[in-house]
Amino acid sequence: MGFESTNNDEASSSSYGLVDPTSPLLPPHPSAARLSSQPKTFANVFIAIVGSGVLGLPYTFMRTGWAAGALLLAAVAALTFHCMLLLVRTRRRLDLDDGFSKIASFGDLGLAVAGPSGRAVVDAMIVLSQAGFCVGYLIFISNTLAYLFHLPSNPSPFLAPKALYIWAMLPFQLGLNSIKTLTLLAPLSIFADVVDLGAMAVVLGEDLAVFLSHPPPLRAFAGPSVLLYGVGVAVYAFEGIGMVLPLEAEAADKAKFGRTLGLSMFLIALIYGLFGVLGYLAFGDDTRDIITTNLGTGVVTVLVQLGLCINLFFTFPVMMNPVYEVVERWFCGKRYCFWLRWLLVAAVSMSAMLVPNFADFLSLVGSSVCVVLGFVLPAAFHLKVFGMELGWCAVAADVGIVLLGVALAVAGTVSSLQQILTSKEVS
């Protein structure tokens, strides 16, 4: 996922953007010259979804089995795509004016469908998901640095090697997160995209070489007990629901937006599946929660890992920006408040110190807030707006998605918390 420069310095709920899903991305009537072609829309969807979550997929496939992991990934991709289209249809039904929608974000849609309470629910989920992504970033960075540069171990979670790296980053993050405007960080978009794609390419090449030289024993299915874990990580990996309405609003050919979105999702699912399967095929039961730490300490792999760390370090303030906008609106009347930002950065940092495993935390965030954002709310909003106009089959489908989402959120959250509480630090 990459940064996108905007004039209003707002951020996105997707993994790397500057567009706030709770605030309008576009003016009510953008000029046609600024609308996105199909290739640009395709690229924007790809950038909005693909992020650091992919690095936890091989470990997840090791836990679930390669066939079970691939099937879960495909099912989550299909359901995510369906729910993205539900959001688009709901927005179109509510507010279209000469082809340009005034509802430009998920938060706007929540307000239009369910009033202030609807917006409050979306805002709360955005805050939790964005903060969760940032906790994941710090876990990734600190675990990677602890793997590359060993420090003396300590039993205290606040003095462990990974915690020391988080403490070292904290002053710099406080400074970065005090910046009112994120425009200066926008040029890092190219760097972010190149590093992400480069990391995947290096990992895939190393995976294939290792597998061909020493194929390990593998399993296709590991049993039902780990399916919830796999669902949580898969949902996290496909999180990007907050960018769908802004992307559709700026698409030049809105009639073909669904087809473009579907093609992007299919390609992303294919890449994710290949990445997860090959990572597990290469290292078997030795697959680590961050696949790059399986690659050794060669020059290229170290550079890739450091590049990913730098990328996520500078992505952190961008991802926290939607949190600040919502929380400052709640408590400070939309006024900038540096001490509140510092408090949130400190809370996120402390949380990262307490979670030992990167993929376990991905599963928790995916199972909880991402399921609600990605499945429950789109189906509920769609059902409320269209009602019985849908027909019994469509109503049953929406109700089924809501019930499935709630069940997955409750069961998956409990399962992920149990896994985190019983996990030990990956050495």
What does this 3D model show about the protein?
This protein has 13 helices and no strands. The protein has 427 residues and is an all-alpha fold. It has a single domain (32-422), classed as Up-down Bundle (Amino acid/polyamine transporter I). Helix 4 crosses helix 5. The radius of gyration is 21 Å and the shape is globular. The two termini are 28 Å apart. The model is unreliable at 1-33 (pLDDT under 50).
Kindly list the characteristics that best describe this protein:
427 residues; mainly alpha; Amino acid/polyamine transporter I; globular
Strand content: under 5%
Which regions contain 5 or more consecutive residues with pLDDT less than 50? Answer: 1-33
Could you please say which CATH topology applies here?
A: Amino acid/polyamine transporter I
CATH superfamily: Amino acid/polyamine transporter I
Number of helices: 13
Output the CATH class name.
Mainly Alpha
* Percentage of residues in helical conformation: 55-70%
CATH architecture: Up-down Bundle
Average pLDDT rating: 83
Helix and strand succession?
HHHHHHHHHHHHH
Domains counted in the coordinates: how many?
1
Main sheet properties? none
Distance N to C terminus = 28 Å
Main location: membrane
Transmembrane segments: 41-61, 67-88, 126-149, 155-172, 184-205, 225-249, 261-283, 295-316, 336-355, 361-383, 390-411
Subcellular location: Membrane
GO molecular function: L-amino acid transmembrane transporter activity
